Amino acid sequence: RPAGQTWMSVGESAAKALAEWIVELEKNSSLSGVVSGLEVINEPGLGFEGMAEPIRRYHDSVVPAVQQIFREAKLAVNTTVNFISPNDGEMGSWLKSRVDANQFDGSALLVDFHDYYNWDGPLSFAQVRQKICSTTATSCGWSQYLQAGLSVVVGEWADAIDNNKPPTDNIDDPAVRKNLASLFADQVSMFESTAGTTGHYYWAMRMGSGWDPRPGAAASGHQINGTAWNLSLKSYGDRTWNLGELARVGAVKSVGGLNTTGVCKCDGCSKS
């Protein structure tokens, strides 16, 4: 950072510069409408206690500035916000207070929620399924934002459970693949059946696939032999994070191929 600048001001400058760049993209007809949102910060304060106040202060500065840039350019681009434990408590009510005071434009505000079961402890597929199937719009992890009248996108989720431990991570086992297919469908059914939830994105398409983008002799920025976007390194122990590989081995179906009719109600979804 330049001398005399705080990290807060660096972040503010970066967010506004990105918003202005998105405005410039709109001038190119082939790129117009491509960007639907700008997330002003990702997982702020993850793993650090007592950061709610500076996180709120950052948003108080950045959200109105970014929204003004898009408003003046007449662009329908969402300003996206993300909060994560241990600094996400009561952020829904805090956002609502800002919207009610006309400091944030609620019509162009989107909350990005990251929803994982992997770190909930040593849970079996049956136990995770029970948690998902008993979840409602008032008990889901992002309920505080829905209750505040805000729109939510589940910007990160995955099929990984039990801290990436075997046997639940062994996608070469047909029984595990069947359980993963059912777990995948259960989660999709939850997201798509919860009013106010606008979409969801799996993390990630090619996790652990063997591509190392770093320059230099150690990595050389190439795909390692025997791997691909949907084929992880054999030594990689977290293959459930690679959506491409799950699809390749038949552990999941495309979201468009899931016939979800409600929470944990999906016709034929457990079949690989």
Describe the SSE topology.
Blueprint: H1 7-25, E1 37-39, H2 52-72, E2 78-82, H3 91-100, E3 109-117, H4 125-133, H5 143-147, E4 151-161, H6 174-193, E5 197-202, H7 243-248, E6 259-262, E7 265-267
Parallel strand pairs: 1-2, 2-3, 3-4, 4-5
Antiparallel strand pairs: 6-7
Helix pairs in contact: 1-2, 4-6
Extended strand count: 7
Average pLDDT taken over every residue: 91
> Which bin fits the share of residues in helices?
25-40%
Strand ordering within the main sheet: 1-2-3-4-5
In words, what does this structure look like?
- The chain is of the alpha/beta class and 272 residues long.
- 33% of the residues lie in helices and 15% in strands.
- The protein is built from 7 helices and 7 strands; from the N terminus they run αβαβαβααβαβαββ.
- It has helices at residues 7-25, 52-72, 91-100, 125-133, 143-147, 174-193, 243-248; strands at 37-39, 78-82, 109-117, 151-161, 197-202, 259-262, 265-267.
- A 5-stranded parallel sheet has the order 1-2-3-4-5.
- A hairpin with a 2-residue loop joins β6 and β7.
- α1 (7-25) runs parallel beside α2 (52-72) and α4 (125-133) runs parallel beside α6.
- The longest helix is centred in the N-terminal third of the chain and has 21 residues, at 52-72.
- The radius of gyration is 20 Å and the shape is globular.
- The termini are far apart.
